[in-house]
Amino acid sequence: MTDTAWLDETEMAAWRAFLSTSHLLERRIEEQLKAAAGLTHPQYEVLARLADAPDRQMRMTELARGVVVSKSALTYQIGQLEKAGLVERTTCPSDERGVLAVLTEAGVRCLERVAPGHVAVVRAYLIDRMTRGELETMTTAMRKTEQALRQ
Amino acid sequence: MTDTAWLDETEMAAWRAFLSTSHLLERRIEEQLKAAAGLTHPQYEVLARLADAPDRQMRMTELARGVVVSKSALTYQIGQLEKAGLVERTTCPSDERGVLAVLTEAGVRCLERVAPGHVAVVRAYLIDRMTRGELETMTTAMRKTEQALRQ
DNA sequence: GAGTGCTGGTTCAAATCTGAACTACTGCCT
DNA sequence: AGGCAGTAGTTCAGATTTGAACCAGCACTC
Questions:
Q1: Is residue B91 part of a domain?
Q2: Residue A2 has what pLDDT?
Q3: Which among B15, B124, B137 has the least Cβ separation from residue A122?
Q4: A4 is a domain residue
Q5: pLDDT value at position A147?
Q6: Which CATH number does the domain housing residue A107 bear?
Q7: Strand C–CB B97 distance below 7 A
Q8: How far apart, in whole angstroms, are the C-alpha atoms of residue A63 and residue A50?
Q9: How many domains does chain B have?
C-alpha cells in the first residue's frame, strides 16, 4: 500500500474494458438462460461441470471452487437444482462428511436442451469476435491471473 | 438456436479462463475494498466514475450504464453512499425528472484514501501479469464484445 | 394547449450471495 | 484408545441485485 503506480491511459482502458465487458456479458447470459430455461448462470455452470465430471458427480467443495462461488451459495443452488430434479445429493462413500452432487437423467436432458442456446450467446458476443490469436493471447493472460488468485 | 458450433478445446479453454478469472478477481477486489474501507466494488466504481466526471456529478441513468448495474441497484447504492455522506443528490436543473449524483468533499477524500489499495490489487493480479502486447490485444478484444453488448 | 407516448427514477417483492457460526466426521499424535 | 486440530457442509442473518410496476415530467402531434 506504500506507493503503487497509478494506471496509465492504456492500462486504465484495459481494466475498464475488461470490467465492463465481463459484467455486460454476464448480464446477457443471465438474461438468455432465464428466458430459455429459467436457469441462472451459476446453475448452468453447475450442470455443465457435473456433466463433464466422471460419473457425472462431484464433491460440493470441488464444485464450489470450479464455479467460483461460496460454499453456502452452492449449498443453496444445489438445493434449487434438487427441487427441480436436475441434481441429487449422495453422501460420499469414502468420507462420511462429504456430499456428492450427482447429475440426474433429467439434468442431462435439461443441459442438452439448454446448452446450444447458451453457447450461441458466448460465441456471438465473445468467441466469434476474436481472432484465433486474440483468443490465445487472452487465454494465457487470464490463466496467469487465475493461477495467482487460486494461490 | 438451429445449429451453433460447439466450442472446441481452445475456445472452451478461453471461455472458462475468462469466466473464472473475472469471478475470482471480482471476489478478491470485493474482499480488499471491504477490508480497507467497508466499500463494495460497485460503490467504489460509482465514486471513481463521479470523480472523473465534469463537476464530479452524473445523471443516474448514465452512471448506471457506466457501472453496468440496474437502475434500481444504483438507486439503492446511491442511497447507501448518501447515508455515508460520500455522495449527494440534486435534481437536474435542465430536466425536472432527472437526478444528479454529486461527489461530496468527503467522497473525494474517501476515494483518494482507498484508490491506491484498490489499484494495487488490480495491478498485482491483472495488469502487471500481462505484457504490454497482451494488454493491448485484450483491450481490443474486450472492446468488440463490449460494443456489441451495448448495441 | 390537451393528448399520447417516452424517459428518468424510485419502490417493491423475490431471489441470491456472502461470511460467520455451528455440527459432524477425519486424520494424526501420543 | 483418547484427544485435538482441521475439513466438509449446512444454517442463518444481513446485504445486495434484479425486473416489474409505478409516478412524474418532457416532447411531439393535431
A1: yes
A2: 53
A3: B15
A4: no
A5: 93
A6: 1.10.10.10
A7: yes
A8: 8
A9: 1
